[in-house]
Every structure is written in C-alpha cells, then in structure tokens.
Amino acid sequence: MSWEEFRSPVSFLKQKLGAVACEQTLRAYESYWEREGKAISEIVDRAGTPWLRMFDRFGRRIDEILFPPEYWTLLKHGYQTGIIWRAFEEQSLISSYLLGYVTSFYDPGLYCPYTVSLSTAVPLEKYGTESVRARFLPMLLKRDDSVWQGATWMTEVKGGSDLGVAVETIAKPSGDHWLLTGEKYFASNAGAELAVVAARPEGAPKTVRGLALFLLPKYRQDGSLNYTIRRLKDKIATRSVPTGEVELTNSEAYLLGKLEWGIYLILEVLNLSRVANSIGSVALTQRVLSDALSFAQERTAFGKPILEHPLLRRQFEDRIAQVEMAFALAWEAVTLLDRVWRQTPPYSEQYHLFRLVAHLAKYWTAELAAQTAKWGMEVYGGVGTLAEFGMDRWLRESMILAIWEGTPHRQMLDGLEVMERKGAHRLLLQYLEPWAEPKALREMQARIEAHLKLAPAEKEAQIEGLFRDLANFTAAVLRSKLT
Predict the structure, then answer these.
(1) DSSP string, 358-400
(2) Quick one: DSSP state of residue 347?
(3) Is the peptide bond before 68 cis (omega within 30 degrees of 0)?
(4) Residue 454 gets which letter from DSSP?
(5) 304: which strand partners?
(6) Cα dihedral 331→334→340→344 (10° resolution)
(7) CATH architecture classification, 263-482
(8) Count of H-run helices and E-run strands, the chain
C-alpha cells in the first residue's frame, strides 16, 4: 500500500482485508473523527484526570464524573454508530472490532469504555436470566443519548493476576438477587450504569473455582446509588476513560450463569477485552507511524527530508512490515473469537485455539505498540518530548496497553497453561499449516514439545523466549495468509 493510504485507518483495513464489513459506516465514522473527534480528544487528554463530584449541593451522594460536555458527545457518537448494538443485530463481533480499530487510531483510551460495555453486554445476553436480560440488555443497545454503559470490575487491591486469592468481595443470596460487599481497586469506566463483577459467594473456597460473575447496576431498585466511588485514579494515560476505586456495600447484583462456571465466565469477559486490546495496540502503532511519517516528510536535515535518508527510510519500511504482521495476528484473534463467542462451557477445541491466539496477540501487539511509540518520539527528536506536539501521548497510551487485561507475564503463563492442558499449540500449528513453511512448522512444534517436558520451575522461567518466538512466527505466517 502507498504511504499516503497508511494515514487512514479505514484505508489500511480495506487494504488488509479487502471487503470490509460496514465500510460506509466506517468511512463516515473516520470522517467524524477528522472533522470533530480529534479536537475533542486532544482537549480531553490535555485536561487530565476528570473531577469527581461526590455530593450535590444538598449533601446527597451522587458520584458524578465531570468531563467536558464535548466528551460525552464524542463518547455517545461511537455507541450510536453501533460499536455495541451491531454485535447483536448482526450476530457477529466483526463490525464492533472494526469500529474499535478506527476509534483507537484516534483515541485508544476511548476504546476502553466501548470494550468494557461490550464485555458487559455479551455475558448479560448469554448468561442472564430472561427477566434480567429484559430489564437491562436493551439499555446497552440503545442508539441515542440515553444508552447505558458497561464496565468490568475484577481487580482488587491485591492485584489482578491471582484472582483466586485477590478477590475478597463477598456475595450473599437475597431473594431474587445477591448482595455484594467489597472493594474494586482498578474499576475502569467508573460511573457506568452496569458492571460485571467478580465476587466470591459466601462460604466458597478461596480459589478461582470459588468465584462467580455478577451483574451490578449503578442504582438499587429503590433508586439509590448501588455503589460509590472513593476516588478517581490519576493515571499516566487513558484519560478518556475514568478509572476509580469502587466500594460495594450490600450492593444489589444478579448472578450470571451457573455458580460453578464463574471463572470461565470471568475469562470470557477478559478475552473479549484482550482481543480489543490487541486491535487497539495495532491501531495505535499505525497512528504513531502515520504521525512520524508526516513529520519525516517535512523535517529536513543535511539538505533533504529525513525520510530520504537510507537508515530512517529502512526503519520505516521495517516498522510497516511489523504493523502488518501485528494486524494479521490481532485480526486472526478477532476472526477466531467471532466463531466461538456464542459457546458456553464446556468449550470446543476451536475455543482453546482462540485462547492461545488471543494470548499471543495481546502480548505481541502491546509490546510492539510501546516499542513503536518510543521510536516515534525518536523520529521527532527533541520536539517529540514536548506535550504540545502529541507524540508523548501515544507513548503514555501504549504503556497502559501492555498492562491492561493482563501483563505480558500473565499472557505467557496463561498461554503456557492452555498449551499444557489443552494441547492448543498443536491446534495452532495445524491451523497454520496451509500457509507455513513445513520445515519451520516442524521445528516450532519440536521446540514447544521439548519445552513442555521441562521441570515446572524451569518451564515457567524459560517461557518468554519461546512465547515471543511463537508469537512472531504466528504473526509472520498469518501475514502471508492476508497477502
């Protein structure tokens, strides 16, 4: 593709995928961002952490998050365009992730509210009782300013990796609902009208098997606040999504699915978000390259634009090849998820294949985004370190992508687990066979099998190199599939 086309997220998607679902909608959405959204996004980012108005002037607790009015207009535009409702109307996640890609090219942080709203709507639709679905799902699928937002609250102060120990929120049955008491330390999209929450039913074991997933509304049935926000986090980036510390005190909630399915449903929620994180990482990488390209074409040194110097030009070519690989890997995660997102436990082999690809994609694309953002600042030179020119924002945003929904360590360990327990590496290599070089495929399989025979401590300690190479191998093969 031409470097000029690289500046448009929709042109990039079309060049990579050929026919693109809802192309006219995507073009209109991109035009909105160019016309209005970019300026609003920049204002929101420069404003920093939003304020939290905890009480109204009469002393009543309201926990209102104070963004500029334009923020809500920008946010609601994505919901109205269909970033959530299209998934259910089309019975496919493809359009949602395409819209997420365009969103992330302009504002990766804003994709977070959409992601966690989708990750609320999907388990609600799949696992909510008929009455709970009828009451809440239509509100998430509305196409006007009255649309509700969702949130996914798992992490508590002890961290998010070891949920079996870290989740201390307790759930007690109370008639047709449950009462939750506890705290969520990193509550993304604080203020949402609905949240899916990990909690431990009273008396359940303190392991991941003792967890369950609940739907928690913002307001109780009597109209009072069902949760309160202690404070909003002052994060280094993603200022376009409020993250807070949420307190639950006998908060009304509704069980999703079966109690014994809790950890599986929690992982379904996380995997929806991990795929979105991968898509957002690739879009951010493209945006960094787009901005750096514009700068390099105009900045002159030693008598010519810096883009014409062989070393930098070669770096651009290499980075473009890397983002194409990253997109191929991330999009394969989307494609596989779209085939299995309706499944419920026990899952098929195809679901376990998806899981491994999702872990590889989340790990590899987030790392690439951070590396590319750092490189983009280097292309700008000294002005790249100045907030007024915007490249620092992409570095800040990329730092969150590597951590959100599981650090690189978590992706490696979860990937190792699905290879050990489900043989997902064999499923993956078999899946890649039509496009892979046979000798390279055999060598990769032999290497993985040898690794899985190591002693447990050594197997974990040495996983990073293997996981990185498997991700790189998979991305390269899938890039050839797309071309």
Answers:
(1) HHHHHHHHHHHHHHHHHHHHHHHGGGGG-GGGSHHHHHHHHHH
(2) P
(3) no
(4) S
(5) 301
(6) 140
(7) Up-down Bundle (1.20)
(8) 18, 11
Superfamily name with CATH number, domain 5-140: Acyl-CoA dehydrogenase/oxidase, N-terminal domain (1.10.540.10)
Residue 1 has pLDDT above 70, yes or no: no
Reported confidence tier of residue 163, pLDDT bands at 50, 70, 90: confident
pLDDT tens-digit map of 66-105: 999 999 999 999 999 999 999 999 999 999 999 999 999 9
Q: Of 40, 36, 27, 22, whose CA–CA distance to 102 is shortest?
A: 27
Number of C-beta neighbours around residue 145 at 10 A = 11
- Name the 3-class secondary structure at 458: helix
* Mean of per-residue pLDDT scores for the chain: 96
479, 353, 330, 457: CA torsion to nearest 10: -100
The total number of residues written for the chain in this structure: 483
* Secondary structure class of 400 (helix, strand, coil): helix
CA distance linking residue 154 with residue 70, whole number of Å: 30
| Residue 137 structure tokens | 């799902």
Instruction: Classify 77 as helix, strand or coil.
Output: helix
Contacts of 475 (CB under 8 A, 6+ apart): 325, 326, 328, 329, 360, 364
* Domain ranges, ordered by start, for the chain: 5-140, 152-260, 263-482
Give the model confidence (pLDDT) of 230-253 as tens digits: 999 998 878 899 999 999 999 999
Would the pLDDT of 160 be above 80? no
| Residue 255 CA neighbour count, 13 Å, CB half | 20
Mean pLDDT to the nearest integer, 137-150: 97
In this model, does residue 205 exceed pLDDT 70?
Answer: yes
Strand partners, 300: 305
- Nearest alpha carbon to residue 230 among 216, 213, 243, 240: 243
